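re the bet — no i am not wrong, look at it urself. input seq straight from the record:
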Amino acid sequence: MAGLALAGSAMPAVTILNPNRAFAGVNSETLKVGLIGCGGRGSGAANQALKADPNVVLHAMGDIFKDKMDSSLENLTKVHGAKVKVDEGHKFIGFDAFKKVLDSGVDVVILATPPHFRPEHLTAAINAGKHVFCEKPVAVDAPGVRKVLDAAKLAKQKNVSLMSGFCWRYHEPKRASFGKILDGAVGDISAVYNTYDTGTLWSFPRVAGWTDAEYVLRNWTYYTWLAGDHIVEQAVHSIDMMSWAMGGKLPLSCVGTGGRQVRTDALFGNIFDHFAVTYEYENGVKGFHHSRQQANCENSYLVETIGTKGRAMVNCARNVHEIYGQNPWKYEGVQNDMYQTEHNELFASIRSGKHVNDGEFMAQSTLLAIMGRMAAYTGKRITWNEAMNSTEKLGPDTYSFDMKPPVVEVAKPGITAFS
């Protein structure tokens, strides 16, 4: 999900607990925030964190690109002034910058690097006893998901908050709609249809002096080892809402297809430009997912839940939240800024000591998307257990701008093997 403009994020009407109240795990009254990953989404999250509590400061920043950090720091300072207290000694550049941010005295960290790095960064943050806002998706492969699940368990033991970037979970119209579904408004669910069909993404042309690794890292969305492909990096929002409608019930298996029809140039790395996946649940219940990143095509971003008593439409693009059938209903309540609500609730949980932990659902939804990618890449039926226990690990273990980035062929269904 793209980051919002810093000045454009309105503060919704939510209750924030007394900021001077003592809270677990932190001795100072001022919460110090560390930003790890200073791109658009990371900068947006830092903006919302600074709005979420009157006694919060941005204390440290880390990124592998100095220009990204400098731009983020300049924009955040323009909006928040004295709440941005990042001196030269707390600006960290490099692949180990996340460690230096964690060691800098911060209380809360925002993890917003490319998804490949998320499991390592999250594990380190929880081990360090930090409260975490963790962008979605949380991994690009099953070993990463398993690592995240372990970190989520440790967060509960350490009594720290862990909030995901699955922002629709914090949107009041969605909360009301899926609450109705889970309360039985559409009856027994037979199918959930969800889409994320959109246009093309940004890319950065190569600049003289960039190594191959720097070019790939700056264009990370086009490489499966960094992003997980767009079904994992972007369309996971719709898949997460499908899982929400299903009450978190896990599918038995899935089958899928996909490929590259339009984005065939090497500029677009090795990812697909479309997916179609059918998730198969107990008792014949189906989840139908469709996602596409192709220009000049019909866009769609919705979740439709079909049951024995009616159907529920949640249309993200058109802001429609309505139930049709035996129990007709239409949402007419507050339209909140979900990005801001995430951080308001995160900081309120820290202040109150009633810590939020999104770890399990954020890991499961990420694996649902990875599972769909596996089915589409291989052309095979993939069971949930196969996906969860997969040994396929994407990307290297060590990083430098001089490294040779992984060269991975575009997947060929029926030829690409599952591992």
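see?? The first strand starts at residue 31 and ends at 36. told u. also Residues 31-168 form a domain with the Rossmann fold fold (CATH 3.40.50.720). so pay up
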